[in-house]
Specification:
Number of domains: 1
Largest sheet: 2 strands, antiparallel
Radius of gyration: 18 Å
Shape: elongated
Order of helices and strands: EEHHHH
Protein name: SPOSA6832_03520-mRNA-1:cds
Strand content: under 5%
Helix content: 40-55%
Number of strands: 2
Number of helices: 4
Distance between the termini: 46 Å
Length: 85
């Protein structure tokens, strides 16, 4: 988890929580996701941000959608060509 602390004597704040609350992030649920026991809290914040609505909601990419439409790398293209031959 990443934390920010504006001044040394102030309480630290979780960056993930701040971004979810603002609607600038989504909860990553794929393999290898680490939530430090705060998954329920993060899902609640994500749901609240979605209820608040956003004008650009339909154009925002979610991680799994981005991975599905991204262009294959040069190495992946070379491997595909080798398999076709």
């Amino acid at each position: 988890m990443a934390y920010t602390r504006p001044f040394p004597w102030l309480r630290r704040r979780n960056v993930s929580e701040i971004m979810l609350r603002a609607g600038l992030a989504t909860v990553y649920r794929e393999a290898g996701a680490v939530h430090a026991g705060q998954l329920a809290r993060f899902e609640e914040l994500e749901a609240q941000a979605k209820c608040a609505g956003d004008a650009s909601e339909e154009t925002r990419n979610v991680v799994h959608q981005f991975k599905a439409v991204r262009k294959p790398s040069r190495l992946q293209e070379e491997n595909r060509r080798r398999q076709e031959q």
